[in-house]
Amino acid sequence: MPWAVLAWGILCRVPVSATYTVYHGSSEPVMMAAEYADIPADAIARYLVERCGVDAIFGGDSH
Questions:
Q1: What is the pLDDT of residues 10-23, one digit of tens each?
Q2: Where are the beta strands (DSSP E) in 1-63?
Q3: Among candidates 39, 34, 31, 48, which has minimal Cα distance to 3?
Q4: Does position 5 have pLDDT exceeding 50, yes or no?
């Protein structure tokens, strides 16, 4: 499950480290292993707004 609901909010299971392999003859990477962290959805939203800006996320005027 990509998310979990807790009494205090929603957590998103996000890969924070991964190992990929590209097999000979293919251009598509295949994930071999990953380490995940449960990160609060509101922290992800705050990060995106602070780094990208409201216009980049919502496509223009924020009013």
A1: 889 999 999 999 99
A2: 3-6, 9-22, 29-40
A3: 39
A4: yes
Q: Taking the CB of residue 12, how many other CB atoms lie within 10 A of it? A: 15
Contact 30, 22 (CB under 8 A): yes
Q: Which residue do the tokens 């609901």 mark? A: 5
Instruction: Collect all residues with Cβ–Cβ distance below 8 Å to 52 and sequence separation of at least 6.
Output: none
Rounded to whole angstroms, the Cα distance separating 1 from 43 reads 19
Condensed to tens digits (0 to 9), the pLDDT of residues 35-50 reads 999 999 989 988 988 9
Stated pTM of the model:
0.58
